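User: Can you help me understand a structure? I only have the sequence.
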Amino acid sequence: MKNPFASVPGLAAVALLTAGCEGDDAFTPAAASASEPTVGVRFLHASPDAPSVDVVGPGATFAEDLDYKEATALTPFALGAASVSVDANVPGGPLTVIGPAELELIDDTVYSVLAVGPVAALDALIVTAPEADLAAGSVRAQVVHAAPQAPAVDVYVTEPDAVLEQQNPIGSFAFGEVLDPVEVPAGDYQIRVTASGDPAAVVFDSGPVPLAAGADLLLVAVENTGPGDAPISLVAADAEGSVEILDVSTPAEVRAIHASPDAPAVDVIVNEDFENPVLTDVPYAGVSDYLAVAPGTYNIKVTPADNPGVIALDADLELTAGARYSVYASGPLAALEPYVLVDDDRPVATQAKVRLVHLAPGAGLVDIYVTAPGEDISGLEPAFPDVDFGDETGYVPLAGGEYEVTVTAAGTTAPAIGPLTIQVSDGGVYTAAARDAEGGGAPFDLILLDDFTP
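Assistant: Let's start by predicting it. Here is the structure, written out as tokens:
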């Protein structure tokens, strides 16, 4: 079906997860055949501190690497008994954390299986809805409260800008509860969530949302683990997949890192406002705090702090609501470039997340080893071979503990950086960027960010 949220401002950059299974292949349980009646089943990851999961159904894998706030498509299951388990992707290999859950699937019903709650109290919430035809020109929605830290709330679905004190909520519910499906005419709506019994205490506001005729939606309130003050966002799942609806006021967040070894301290100017630099006198290897900004396109200029007439970097950056960015001023001063990474700092209770970035122009091609403390790397293969300037590892899951990071010239085992002992904890997020010495070249070092303690 057509994505009913495709025209919502700010949602164009949100990936529509149309399958939830790697390879985008249709999943049909081994017990089902083309001649047998089936029902639709979807799975949604709603646990805010859980790792990605695999969902195993009868005879096949239902979904692989399903991440927080992602839902699968509705998938046909044969009527009758079905066993489904959820395996968390943790360091050391998948671990079954839910199930096997035994489902008794009956005809004319749609099933949604949600992983809810924090890892310490993870549970499966089974949501059912009757499979019924929609009236012409109508939209149907069922709402689930799956945000464990949020209190009991009221949900309003109204015309845009309707005064809530003059409206009735479609329902009131607490964590783990489900509102019955409601059917409304297609059109533009505003979804607002308030503290229970207090329409003035709005905790989530979708802004205007066009709901297309024929849409049959599961709306799931989940914890907001990204920028902004709203405690929740909504995951809207239909037959094909899901999309996240953010609070209308959700900003982007961006931080700046000075990673140019021969550049002096710098100022950062946004949208030509030279009279009011956003950051001033940032030293080499300096890291700013995250700055919250409205989503949109920004012109960024970097100038030497003592010579603002010289533009060392001039670039336009597109910043999306709900995303966090690290912008590194990278390379030599004569060819300064922005190096932009999207940060994923959602804590995962079962592991640390570690990202390594190569921003040392004098180091050339390198190998990166991540080992137990004191382990001799001479007989080991690097964890990340042939890493070039400007490459990064992505977030690597590591069990909490102590490790050594050693960076060598590619194909050698002579350390260029380290061995550096790092201590990481489950639930921590860590980024380290390799850098030149001030002025350029060796000795090389690391810029430590996020939960690293320098």
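Now, to help you interpret it: The two ends are 51 Å apart (CA to CA). The longest strand covers residues 93-105. Let me know which part you'd like to focus on.
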